[in-house]
Amino acid sequence: MLYPQSNSSRAMISLDGFWKFAPDVNDDGEQRGWPLQLPADREIGVPASWNEQFQDLMYFFGTGWYEREIELSRQLRSERIWLRVGSANYLSTVWVNGTEVGRHEGAHLPFVFEITDHVRWDGPNRITIRVDAAIAADRLPPGDVEDEQIVGFKGQYPNNYYDFFPYGGIHRSVTLFTTPMSFVRDIRITTEIDGTDGKVKAHVGLSEGFEGACAVSIRGTQCRSSVEVGTAGPSVDVDFTVPAARLWCPEDPFLYELEVRLTDGNGQAIDQYVQTFGIRTVSIRGTELLLNGKPVFLTGFGMHEDFPVLGKGISPAVIAKDFNLLNWIGANSVRTSHYPYSDEFLSYADKHGLLVIGETPFVGFVRSHYQGTAILNKAKRVITEMIERDVNHPCVIAWSLANEGDTLAPEADAFYEALYSHAKSLDDTRPVTIVNCVDVEKDVALKHYDFVSLNRYHGWYEQAGRLDEGCRILSEKLDRCYEVLGKPVIVTEFGADAVAGVHVDPPEVFSEEYQAEMVTRQYEIIRQKPYTIGAHVWSFADFKTSQTPSRVVVNRKGVFTRDRQPKLSAHKLKALWSGGSSKKPSRT
């Protein structure tokens, strides 16, 4: 389903704001009639995690219930009515006026249910959403797997198996929107470059039963086409050539607008939708990552959707602040570690030229996941949801299908090959990777992927306090990786914790000086290798984690604090990246 729009044929109503809320401590709310009437003991903000809004919910990882009432204009009675939730963690069930309309498993991606037949026009409509945020071994990402946890996660509270806080709640916007009875269901755009021209292919999916004309055009150009459509699962495919095209890139993130209009047999307007896109190509050639046929070296960060009080809740102000800081420091890219980011973040990246590696929530995989097909099927479904949602974003230049999974198990070979093949079947225009955190000699999965992503913490988790030794070993390990796999390499994580305000000379662990020296020295090592395509510091900003002796309240590896104030390392990276050191040295 396309992102909601408000135009002459569609309406959009935000349900963001205060909702009634009740924690379901005994998980029996449905049996007690809560879909019909919620005995709410408080109001809570949406979108936002529930954990930091109330002290007693900080460590609540059960089921939370939300309720909101809204009256709809009778002018909408001839339309289809849809309810969209941008994301909720983790299992969601939705009722409208006491009738269940749908369920969704998984956080970080939207779900949409048509509610036309359940809407009342003579009074308020009650919308109820139940969100189950329990930590479990069969969820993505998993938790409660104590017998398989490695040192560093054992005994942490709460007992998730990944290094970020398992926030619960409705994290992105809730929207009611309308479409006509016949409507534009989907748009898929792919682009190529032919000399100075842009080649644009558009596939337009239409609702069942539509009969009439489908007009497709690119605004501001002479590209337009009109097709008469029948009723057998209609879709339209068009090819356009844009002469002297402006190519999307960080320096000129120009967006074209593809407009689709539907009219009936009498020429009366039925539906309209405008999809932005960029004309650009991404490919791997030898040891280079090419954007529009030119080598690009990725500088930037892994980062989390994480902010005080909001938790993982979306905020336009936080997105604007983060992009301002990314621009200030000279970064050109990020990885959405370790889950798909919001539609709004990616649209902002499209407009501002930030390159993005889009990642699934497959972090913390354990060997039991390779048994049977249950987790594989979940993984494929989430990959499908991510690619179908994000495929038209020019900012997304690659897909990352997993972070730090157990890729040494023999069973991982077929598992990750299946994930790669599935992703490529959905989108063959972008390279695909997974992220490795162990020595590559015994890794059975990396050989299937287009480039290698490595998380390496030499000088921190290994060789702690011995930065000279850590830098030497990092250099050796990188060379060995290329020797074994012969693929281009990006270091997707490297860095050290630093507690803001702690200064030690000579540098010691947890001081700002140690973090600054580590990231700058190791960045230069990575940048000088002839086979590397990028270096992402871990991480952009401090973020909340489960409680463990290795974390000082939050993970302190950010070069900015959790409230986005720079540490010494941010100033050092700014000097490197803004001064031209983000460019690869010549290979000639």
TrEMBL record:
The root-end lineage is: Bacteria, Bacillati, Bacillota, Bacilli, Bacillales
Q: Does the keyword Transferase apply?
A: no
Q: Which GO terms describe its biological process?
A: carbohydrate metabolic process; glucuronoside catabolic process
Query: What SUPFAM superfamilies does this protein's entry cite?
Result: (Trans)glycosidases, beta-Galactosidase/glucuronidase domain, Galactose-binding domain-like
UniProt GO MF annotations:
beta-glucuronidase activity; carbohydrate binding
Per the UniProt record, the source organism is: Paenibacillus elgii
Record has Hydrolase as a keyword: yes
Q: Where is the Glycoside hydrolase family 2 catalytic domain?
A: 282-578
Entry EC no(s): 3.2.1.31
Which Pfam families does this entry report, sorted A to Z? Glyco_hydro_2, Glyco_hydro_2_C, Glyco_hydro_2_N
What positions belong to coiled-coil segments? none
What keywords would UniProt list here?
Glycosidase, Hydrolase
For this entry, the protein name equals Beta-glucuronidase
Cite the InterPro entries for this sequence: Beta-gal/glucu_dom_sf, Galactose-bd-like_sf, GH, Glyco_hydro_2, Glyco_hydro_2_cat, Glyco_hydro_2_CS, Glyco_hydro_2_N, Ig-like_fold
Q: Which domain of life is it from?
A: Bacteria
